[in-house]
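We give its fold:
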Amino acid sequence: MIQEPDGLFRMWYFAFNTQRRFDQLDVGGYAYAESHDGIHWHKPNLGVVEFRGSKRNNLFYSCHPQGKNLVDEELARRGLGLPAIDEHGNQIGVINNLDGLTVVRDDDDPDPMRRYKLIANMQDHRMWAPAYPKRYPGVSPEQVARSRAVFGQYMDTSPDGIHWTRKPRRLVPALGGDYM
C-alpha cells in the first residue's frame, strides 16, 4: 500500500478465494483498491482484466497473454504466460505466477512511464511438475529445466499503477525457495 502526494491510499493485492472449486479456473486475481482515509476502501472498475467475459472489475494484472483472468496452474498446463525477460533483455520463457507482489511509486525515475514499479517473485509453474505430476501432466524434463531457468525476482512498470507493460524484466535469478 502507498499514499499518493494528494493523500489517496492505494493498495495492490492478491484476492485469494479459498472457496474456489477445481472447475473454476478464473477465481482469485491481482486486485486493486483505494481509500481516502485508509479505513473505507473502494474497488473501482478498472477495465483492464477480463473476468468471465467482462472487464468491469478491480483486477489490474494478469499473466494471461490476452489479459484474461485464469489461475496460474491452468496457465502453466496450457503453456501460457507473459514473456519472461532476463537481465539482458532476452526472452527466456514465460511467467504465469507472481508471488509476494509489491507495488512502489518511484518519483526518482525520470521516465514518467515507469513511475510505478511492480516487483514480485515470478515463475513458470511448470517448474513444479516433478513434485505435482497430476497437476502438470505431460511436462517434459526439458520444459521443467526451462521453467526453472525463468524463476526469479522481476519488475514491471506503469505510468499510473493500473496499466502495466506486461513485459516483466528479471532483476535477479532466484537463489532458492519460492519467496523473495
